Amino acid sequence: MWENTSEGSPISPVCKTHEKLADWLVQNKASAGAYQTASRKKWLDMIKGPGSSLTGVMDTRTGIVRSGISQDHKPEPRTALERAKELRDRVKALLPDRG
Fold it and tell me: Which residue, of 10, 26, 50, 87, has the fewest CB within 10 Å?
């Protein structure tokens, strides 16, 4: 697993399977962003899905910050345009309804 929030650096050893990587991340309480870790299922969803995640997400109504890994991950869209639309929709879902 590689973090690129700062300069970029590994946060885990290289693992042979997705499952072994997720196990290592859970056992070592690896940072999932926003000073939080994640469950094995959430790590696996991110690893097998998009392969990357936002660092953190803040609910502007409550001020609560959650790790990006805690969000639901869908399989990565096929094209750059689809990825951009997916990101736009994810950001819109986090914003308060402006009526």
Answer: 10
